Amino acid sequence: MKKLLNDPSHVVREMLEGLAMLAPDTALLRDANVVVRRDLPEPHARRVAIISGGGSGHEPAHAGYVGDGMLAAAVCGEVFTSPSTDAVLAAIRASAGPNGALLVVKNYTGDRLNFGLAAELARAEGIPVEVVVVADDVSLRNTVGRGRRRGIAGTVFVHKIAGAAAAAGKTLADVAALARSAADAIGTMGVALDGCTLPATQQSSFSLADDEIELGLGIHGEKGVQRTKPMPADQLTDTLLTAITDDLRLSGGERVALLINGLGATTPMELAVVARAAINGLRQRGLRIERAWCGTLLSALNMPGCSISVMRVDDERLALLDAPTKVATWPGAGRVNVDGATGIAAGAAEDAVASSNQAAAQRTPLQLAFDAAARALIDDEARLTELDSKAGDGDLGSSMKRAGEAVLAIPATAWPSAADALADLAVTLRRAIAGSSGPFYATALLRASRRLGESDAPAAPDWAAAFDLAVKAISELGGAQPGERTMLDALRPASDAFTAAVDRGEPLAAAWAATVDAAEKGAASTASMMPRVGRASYLGERAVGEPDGGAVAVVCWLRALTPFVR
User: What residue stretches are annotated with the DhaL domain (predicted)?
Assistant: First the structure.
């Protein structure tokens, strides 16, 4: 796997140097991989120092949380490896004063040993030290006692609460009590869609087949507790929430904070979908969601997947979560807009061109023709996606599928005329298709609709003229011409063939067969064309070799209309 690294053995130090360069309020110790606050007062004036850390590869944890209101120092071991005792001791010495230090430790053997020994050594030097161990992984609830569970993303909650308590001037004993109480109130469970790749290796920590996901994983690339089939985000989120809420024994009316955490290779889009499901799931359980955050806060290198953390809260804990911090990676206030997803009416009136004569009737022959074209586009989604991915952004297949689904959802409609039908179809496609395809098809249909509206009973020549005007509308709107590798390379020869056949007086079925044949040849010819417009033009010669997806889509729906043209 390609990586933006130099020597993998130096990656942690080089990463920390980069992070420190980007955070003026921090400094990196010369002889240890420890990031400390630069703005700490003299030792005698320091408040309780909150120190955390562990193996690297969890960024932005832990160095990213160093700053006023959170950590005084972060100790960073090698990738997925506990830092040494000496490094932890160096962090304590560099950041703590007479008020002492609180070490926030995730429940892994190496971390407990090294942080624990460093605490003993610091106490021997006269520095008061308390240790709080976070063990929030509920996936192990049926295997081991809570004290032996792993510490994972819920640790970020503890960083914030302990940091805010220390910033408020509380004693070490009080800060430790608040941190322990918070740690006991957190449940977390994660899911991986695949393994992660360590900087020094070219292989994933584990591999999952396309029909597998891993539930209950840790944060060091280790396998989870259950391998199962993929499931929709809502169902997967409910599975995680059930484990968490059952373990915490949460009951209706209780107040909670929520954290949706990405594991390193999960897009904000996916995390937001999970956040939606989690918020809905907690509300359905009768819980009050006081705060919620979503983002990558404690990763596992480049692992695709996420974890969900839920923490019981009360007024005191909420106040600490809300306390100000200068740490840029803390994701904000966490206010929840639980009613925001209900939507706000756009306020626009129905399009004047939309037909008002809808009835619960049989689908007309024209609507059945639309349905056939729609199903053909849906069936061709994969092929259109593949073609568009080679020369564009890969969204053509999904756009055409949305168009097809929208057409099939049109209720059985008794349109007064063919012109009204095309106008209605323009509205449907304009709303269903994002990107360029929607405006192109809608404009073409509106232009054709106006031409058909000029006749009370449109005949074949009227349809041919409408087809020609529709193709011209697309060319005018997009600025493309035939020969530039676009949908026009199928549409223009198709329109010309239909017009010529109608002018010769050929039967409609024969005229349409010639139309489809011309479109197919035109689409095939785009494989050797140099793109001149659109995203494909950015690729130049690299786009040559496969037909244009937009032209192939035209052939798809034109062919599907064949049984209805007679």
Answer: 364-563
